Amino acid sequence: MAVKIDSDLCGHIKDCPVQGLCIKLCEQGAIIEKDGDVSIIPENCDDCDLCIQNCPNQAISKV
């Protein structure tokens, strides 16, 4: 199942209360910083759900 980031809910990097914790937690490199924003590389995601469980803004979900 694909993971998506709701850009309206995401604090991006500069406004994230945990400074991009989703990027730090992703051991597969599926979530990256790109121009100060958070991007997903779907083919790297192994559906571990760590990013979903730890996003303080609840901006990450599965589709």
Automatic annotation (TrEMBL):
InterPro entries: 4Fe4S_Fe-S-bd, 4Fe4S_Fe_S_CS. Residues 36-63 form the 4Fe-4S ferredoxin-type domain. GO terms for molecular function: oxidoreductase activity. It comes from Methanobrevibacter gottschalkii DSM 11977. This is 4Fe-4S binding protein. It comes from the Archaea.
